[in-house]
Amino acid sequence: MTMRLLSVLLFAGSVTLLAFSHRSGAAHDPSRLGAWTETQLRALTLEQQIGQLFAVRARGVFQSVDDPEYRELVRLVEEFQVGGIIFFRGDPYSQAVLANDLQRRSRLPLLIAQDTEWGVAMRVRRTTSFPRAMAIGATGNPDYAYAVGYVTAREARALGVHQLYAPVADVNNNPFNPIINVRAFGEDPLFVATMVRAFVRGVQDAGAVATAKHFPGHGDTSIDSHSDLPILRFDRRRLDTLELVPFRAAIKAGVRSIMTGHLALPYLDPTPDLPASLSRRITHDLLRNELGFNGLVVTDALEMQGVTKHFGVGEAAVRALEAGADLLLLSEDVEAARAAILQAIAQGRLSRERIEASVRRILLTKEWLGLHRERTVDLNALPYLVGIAPHQALSQTIARASLTLLRNANNLLPLPDIPNAPRRLQVVILSDSDDPATGRFFVQTLREIAPEDHVTARLLDVRSHPEEYQTALRAAAHADVVLVPAYLFVRSGTGRIRLPDRQREFLDALIAQGPPVVLIAFGNPYMIMDLKRPPAVYLAAYGGNTTTQRAVVQALFGQAPFTGRLPITIPGYFQRGDGLQLEQVVPRLAYPEEVGMSTRRLYRIDSLLQAAIAERAFPGAAVAIGRGPAIVWLKGYGHFTYTSDQRVTPESVFDLASLTKVVVTTTAAMQLYEAGQLDLDAPVARYLPAFGQNGKERVTIRQLLSHTAGLAPFYPFHRMGITSPEAVQQAILSDSLIYEPGTQARYSDLGMIVLGWVIERITGQSLDQYAETHIFRPLGMRHTGFRPVGRPDTTIVPTELDTLFRHRLIQGEVHDETAWILGGVAGHAGLFSTAADLARFAYMLVNEGRINGRAFLKPETIRLFTTPVDPERAGTRALGWDTRSPEGYSSAGQFFGPRSFGHTGFTGTSIWIDPDQQLFVILLTNRVYPTRENRKHLAVRAKLADLAYQAIIGPPTLNLDTLLP
Known about the structure:
beta-N-acetylhexosaminidase activity; Glyco_hydro_3_N; Rossmann fold
């Protein structure tokens, strides 16, 4: 068993990726390797041995038995007896099914390979797509490289792939390199070496073969070897200090395969037009003899122009073997190549021993992989191994950590939170392709944060006409901010990775026009070099997969930090290591695994809520669960009523009932306390003189907040003939105590109503006005507020069918009768909100009072108001908040910690926060529909809290151990 401890940085804190063991059953004790290999080698004819040297192309898509492509592939496996398959585009099941089919048809197990530089998703849909290598480099953390290698290998093995054509070990020190670019980890050879070594170990610890490429180094060329032969005029001294450094590291790390590149190095081998892949001096003398590599040497594709421009099919194959290669990739004609090899043996150019040496390495590799024991994969295991939430969480975490903010004029980022500062955002998507879907996910994700009418978008690509550029320019002139996501990617065979002239001219004009431009390099980070002047904001994202696009949108609005550092130099603009650092300021939606929770365990919440609705505990519910910087569960369940077709969503507005006490009244008291305007130990009568009668003269603010003021719990004013706000106020202010203040706690609506009036007297504002200005707007709670009575609203989740007082369905008006009499605004009830809005409120409390980059409340204030005031006499009561009961039933369930605090509401609402776990759980229901007699929701509250807590699998950070099934 090999064990590895990974430590990574996530947002502002330290993240530990826990130790885990290599669980692949494929590899075994190297000292026992070879017996199967030698047996098989002796049994092969010369032609069969030569067949093992070839790896041919396959697509992992469905093909009928009559498909010519499939028939040819079967022929090559059964008759030609190729040694390997290289899968290109496909989907998971089709590829795995085809891999199994071919393995069963093959005399010897096939060595199946695939390009997986940024995950299996590079070739296979619906698998995990990781950020590009340069993005991993921008995190500065080799443990991420290890983790990506490990997870990619796990998914690859599940799909029947054994050999990964990754990592890229090239050092991209040429800004105009058209084919490597973001495929490399960076420009510093020692740094690249560190990343390569980590990636290799990750792949091979997971039981697959890593392939370092493209030897001896493809990073410093402006020619794409897919279309021509690059000539690198570097001497040995230069190679030793730059290009060869990562390959030496890979070899030291035990890499089992190296791919040679189609690169001519005349100082090493002066033979004209001879690529390294066909050069004995480079492959055999340098790689094998001097660097000591004894593993599998794989050629780059022999169909590439870097070879075919100067050599025929047969000669290329023979020369590759003469050079020291073992596997011949993608020969254009395997029969012609085999015939040339047989002829070279007959002529003495190649010996049988030379062929056997390569076949032995190939068979040893298959034996190391365990293919002699089991060559097929379990199709039933795919959904549990490929594209799963923990893998997606790793990708999302790396994407966030990689974002490199290089310019931020006038501190434009983070953009103000949309609820607080609406802005007109113009999105101009630049693409060097003709794919109409380019940028669509970016805009879709943007509109999940910004209201749709705030965002307009247009795509400019290779199909766009000049007038479309002018139209975009005119539209952008009226925007507050112009976002330009630029998708400029490495594309094999194009020979270029630069902005098209028309797009460059457009960008120059756009930047000069006026409104600030945010230029996002979803691809080539060097693109800024083509511009006459820099944009207001320049952000390097290095790639355009969905996790990267989501990370960018979150970071633009402060939902994620900027922590990346540039792993390259951008001449004339930025140095390696540059990168502005910005903190996260508001919560983001995230995979549970990003913050140490389990998606699979949280799925039990679905069953809980669906069963509760079926048992008529409530018609509908909304749940928000968060931890640390993230909201990990935000879902709606059921409908507005048992017969309604209006579904509940996280944005559905609920009557919060007594959650008003903590969200508004207590929070306002905390703010006024911090401002020195509210003395907790002052008598209430100091602020509200009319309260100081009938024995209440010495009742304090602290006692109101802790429900120890001696006041009655409530009065049914609506049944007492007291139906005006003035009458209610008079009744409460003139009421007498029912017990000695401070001697016990009795939950009281009246105390919080009084505190609401105190707040109004201090601030000179009505409670709803104060809350809107000082709480909801700063927190970005755009769907939260008090509602006037007498104005039903069918867009709001209904509460009770009132047959006694108001004689109608209560929908959009406060359910609590006293709050209704008071006009819908009271300190104890009347607030309406959504699960999404309350998640922002809870995030602020979990984040020690910080939100939007500033202190909304002080940490010490939160601790003061959430600590029990007097456990012996007041029980669990804190200031405004309740705390978890140490015994018996608690709506916080069994597992929330001793410092937990929360509150519930009569309509079926609750919020609980465990500061030690940085966990919050919010449940909104309308359990009072159709009547208040229902109490089935009580068990659901506690069970929900338990399920949320039981989903915790580690600290609020990414835990690599969860990546293993």
